[in-house]
Input
Amino acid sequence: MKKCKMAILLFSGVLPNILSAQDKITTDNWLSSPGIIGTFVLIAIVMIIAIVILFIKLNTYIDKMKRRQIDKNRMAFDDEIVAMDEGEIDVILEKRKAALKYKLKGDELSGDSEVSDEKGLVHQFIKDPNNAFFDEKKKTSLSLETPLELKKIVIYYIGAAALWLVLGTLIGQYLGMKFLWPEMDSQSWLSFGRLRPVHTNMVFWGWSSLAMIGLGYFVIARTSNTKIYNYSWAWSAWRLINLTIILGTMCLMAGVNNGGGEYREYIWPVMLLFAVGLIITFINFYKTVATRKISEIYISNWFILAALIWTIVLSVIGYLPFYQDGLGETVIQGYYMHQGVGMWFMTFTLGLVYYYLPSTLNKPIYSYSLGVLAFWTQMLFYTMIGTHHFVFSPLPWWLQTIAIVFSAGMVIPVVAGTTNFLMTMKGSWNHISKSYVLPFFLVGTVFYFVGSMQGSLQAFRFTNFVWHFTDFNVAHSHMTMYGIIAFFLWAGIYAILPKLTGKEPSQVLVGAHFWLAFIGLFAYMISLMAGGTYKGLSWIDGEPFIESVILMKPYWIWRAVGGSLMLASHLVFAYNFYYMVKGYSKIKSSRKVEEITV
Output
């Protein structure tokens, strides 16, 4: 039997390719590999952006201190006025009386003459007439006329998502500590093998999915200029998805799982509930868009509806068993894993950004054409890249090559989307310190470029040989699912909830959430990237496996530190959410609203 399998591999041309590739690959001059160099450059971009944001924040703090000093000087001047003689005060009052009688001619604030505003009518001015207004941290009475039922749906979806985020990352933190203290417990239901899929599935299907759908309900209604087709369907999907997480968690901790690959550990009866919830959501979204009051379908709806369609198809393909024998299961696993990340989470979230980013900046998206280009190239390239996780496996060499080529093709939608978002933010860079949401959008956009490009570089054969099956992959998944998806979702949540509820969170706590999450992710990411690289090189050099485990210990410590900061940020976020939505139903609109107007 063994000789038969070897003969098949030899005949298919797979075995010679694997053996020759592994014979040629060494650790000599590994730093000169384009994939390695490119990854270093991408990490440097993240570091530079972090320094820039920190510099802006410090500069704002210094300006605030200067303004306080100016106010003190003004108070001292007021005290000086009080101490003046009556004659001196009379002169000042006469000047003030003349100023009150002054009437503008209409040309005082234009032309080449010096600016004159003796009556103090100007509150703020801008030098760039194209510079848009933006959401500031200061308290505002701005609110959106939104049906109470829609508000309730958005808040409950995000609320459930926040709950699963805290629970999921609490489990993730516990797992991270197991790397340092593996003897922490001896209970089977607390073992790493059972809790790890609990963590990933809870934050995937619980946190990210529910938050996306909740934010999506507002976008679908708003951009279609109509109300949600069926509110009861939204609640049915909410119950089904949450029930999926509860039952799936219980099954996994009891040792009942699908036995398949990553992210599809839930058994099919449990995942069927999630699929039904998605189908209900898709029909509800589709019907809402179909009954829209405007002719155009906004590009956000393209992304959102496409993500739902692809994920429904994915749920079917990932769980039907009759074509998943042997290597077929490996192919399906690569497809399922990457389609789940790219065609569900990434595609849906990008659709949200195409609405929430322009609405936050009060300006249109930079280029509709770039958005269309990003959409169709995402649909084209992302569907064929899953096999790059199994380079040098017994899969046909041509199939691996196709995955690598299509991974490189992902540069097109990534560059198009990143350019669109950054150009939309152009002119608002100096407002980062004045906005709740712009820092989250900026970090999400940067990680969208860095994480996606790094994934394309990691698909190359040499970098794949060094990094795959090491802790580097864990760093990459957090760079994308956390750095992109989570930061974009937080941006959308902070952008819309204050407008729906009329309550804004504390500036200090939003800042704490941002910096704890960002620094925690950076520590987590860099430590596992460095450790994963050394582990891969150790394997290539043929060192004993236990040596790679020992060398990872200091990097696992930093992993735990970064995870602790991320968990702390989620607790702050949960409190901010509670503060924003507490008592929201008591806030009444000035008039009854049946529909949403753009």
Summary: The chain has a mean pLDDT of 84.
